[in-house]
Amino acid sequence: MPKKRSYRLLCPIARALDKVGDRWTLLILRDLHAGPARYMELQTGLTGLASNLLASRLNQLQEDGLVRQTDGPHGTQLYALTPEGEATAPLLFELGNYGSRFAPPEDLRRPGNLRTIVVNLKESLRRSVDANSNARAELVVDEEFFAVRVDEGRVTVRYGADPEAPVSLSMGYEALIDTVDGRMPSDEFASEHLEATRGTAEDVGSFLGLLAGAFAGAR
Amino acid sequence: MPKKRSYRLLCPIARALDKVGDRWTLLILRDLHAGPARYMELQTGLTGLASNLLASRLNQLQEDGLVRQTDGPHGTQLYALTPEGEATAPLLFELGNYGSRFAPPEDLRRPGNLRTIVVNLKESLRRSVDANSNARAELVVDEEFFAVRVDEGRVTVRYGADPEAPVSLSMGYEALIDTVDGRMPSDEFASEHLEATRGTAEDVGSFLGLLAGAFAGAR
DNA sequence: CGGGATCCGTTACGATACTG
DNA sequence: CAGTATCGTAACGGATCCCG
To answer: How far apart are CA A33 and CA A79, in angstroms?
Structure first.
């Protein structure tokens, strides 16, 4: 195996980059913040990432203790974040925040799935909810499902349906990221690009309030 | 010139990485947070960075609008952050925060100067001072000088001496980063590794209080 | 001497094909 | 499905050279 390229500088920033600075590494971590994933899920989500690189990055991340393998439902293997890996959430949030000030490139390729959006959503909610709030909802973004939970202020967002959730909201991906990026006002988003497909008016309204708070806090 | 390698993904995190994700780019920005710098200052600070890469990165950063060239004192050219470049401060802070959870590598090379530390110091102070506080001090870390100012809560830290400052504190680099990384308690730092070389007991004490707040807030 | 540009060997990346 | 193997290309690292 090749010996890793490293800055070896006595500086915390350089040390962080030695762990997560390689190409694709932060994007892999980003997708794992949506919950444990199979190899193929990661590869389809990360459009343009070659298979050998994904394997190599996952190995490195395991050596560094940011990712571990776990057993999935039917004898499948899953990749999951360790606590050290979870700790990249604020970093990824700032990265997304910074990236949102640049216009998207014209020649873009869409990610193969939307695990992408979970970190920013999760961190935005974490910064805006207060310690005793509770909520549960399912989001449907371009036909892909997300389970959002707030238990006594602890926020989790996972990729996957949540049929039991009292509220279900559906929306389009592009409108969503335009809103979190601040290019679309959150009330325009709520009125034009968001549809409640399940839940009482009261439950829907209270969850929308939570979402609006997250969007506002991101700025 | 080669066409830039880009993720081209519809995701803010990927867009940020397209701007600042190349090797050395974030470290160059980090050093520029200490104030405008000459080419050679950057090169000596960034131990291991080849000259051609530095030139190429600076060009890219100027194209992307994060860095601009300005005229220095004696007909010299300086590189400085634009507002877009300044906006990387929270990102670099989180990166440093994350990196501080890993042990420094054994085979390390010291940076050629200490511009390195300014971002973290600056952002830590920004998060801990309140809107109406004022302070001015000179820090001397391993013989290198830093000018710290707080004007009505607005924090600036620049690389360079400040002989007019009412307070001057000297300390060692390794103790300082051990403290901001949380490996050394801040009172041990204050009592063992810090020396006040100028200023009344009162001024020194009040500035130490500010520093302690910054160290505590970083955690 | 500071501020680069040029050249070249080595490593990493990207695409695709292949295997258990 | 979950990787490994191969290979052409682009990027990096180190050194040297050039120019004001």
So the answer is: 11
